[in-house]
């Protein structure tokens, strides 16, 4: 798991929302895919589509099938094109404000921050626990990498699991 690349993705998403982009792409890795799917489940981004260096068609992003669509997986993944694979993200806006406000990395490559369930309860209540500041605003989220995948902090408390704190979304 590369936390350096995660920091690049967080800053890229911050810049894309400030520039009011509707569609952006990030490198395709397992960590990025799982984090983006968690962000989509929380309602911060509208769509996550795997693709190549060019953006996918608009109907693919919206999830509407078309008559002329290729069957998923027809383009074979080879050693020569694996580096050019991208995740295309649809960003959401509400009344011309970005839904994904600010995204910041908590764990860094030299200081990985882990937290247990008791510490997560404190963070959800708004209190500081170790290196992790509490969640203050209602729309704020904290994402953790656990042995059950990447989950939001409130979901981790429900399932009684702790893990590595990845990022905070305001």
UniProtKB/TrEMBL annotation:
<dbReference type="InterPro" id="IPR035987">
    <property type="entry name" value="Ribosomal_uS8_sf"/>
</dbReference>
<dbReference type="GO" id="GO:0006412">
    <property type="term" value="P:translation"/>
</dbReference>
<keyword id="KW-0496">Mitochondrion</keyword>
<dbReference type="GO" id="GO:1990904">
    <property type="term" value="C:ribonucleoprotein complex"/>
</dbReference>
<dbReference type="GO" id="GO:0005739">
    <property type="term" value="C:mitochondrion"/>
</dbReference>
<comment type="function">
    <text>Component of the mitochondrial ribosome (mitoribosome), a dedicated translation machinery responsible for the synthesis of mitochondrial genome-encoded proteins, including at least some of the essential transmembrane subunits of the mitochondrial respiratory chain. The mitoribosomes are attached to the mitochondrial inner membrane and translation products are cotranslationally integrated into the membrane.</text>
</comment>
<dbReference type="GO" id="GO:0003735">
    <property type="term" value="F:structural constituent of ribosome"/>
</dbReference>
<dbReference type="InterPro" id="IPR000630">
    <property type="entry name" value="Ribosomal_uS8"/>
</dbReference>
<dbReference type="Pfam" id="PF00410">
    <property type="entry name" value="Ribosomal_S8"/>
</dbReference>
<keyword id="KW-0687">Ribonucleoprotein</keyword>
<dbReference type="GO" id="GO:0005840">
    <property type="term" value="C:ribosome"/>
</dbReference>
<comment type="similarity">
    <text>Belongs to the universal ribosomal protein uS8 family.</text>
</comment>
<protein>
    <recommendedName>
        <fullName>Small ribosomal subunit protein uS8m</fullName>
    </recommendedName>
</protein>
<keyword id="KW-0689">Ribosomal protein</keyword>
């Amino acid at each position: 798991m590369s936390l350096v690349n995660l920091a690049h993705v967080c800053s890229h998403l911050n810049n894309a929302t400030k520039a009011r982009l509707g569609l952006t792409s990030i490198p395709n890795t397992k960590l990025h895919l799982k984090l983006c799917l968690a962000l989509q489940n929380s309602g911060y981004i509208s769509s996550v589509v795997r693709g190549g260096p060019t953006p996918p068609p608009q109907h693919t992003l919206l999830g509407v099938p078309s008559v002329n669509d290729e069957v998923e997986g027809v383009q074979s993944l080879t050693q020569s094109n694996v580096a050019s694979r991208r995740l295309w993200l649809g960003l959401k806006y509400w009344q011309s404000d970005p839904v994904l406000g600010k995204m910041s990395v908590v764990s860094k490559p030299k200081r990985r921050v882990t937290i247990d369930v008791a510490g997560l309860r404190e963070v959800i209540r708004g209190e500081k626990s170790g290196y992790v500041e509490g969640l203050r605003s209602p729309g704020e989220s904290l994402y953790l990498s656990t042995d059950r995948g990447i989950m939001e902090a409130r979901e981790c408390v429900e399932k009684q699991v702790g893990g590595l704190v990845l990022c905070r979304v305001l």
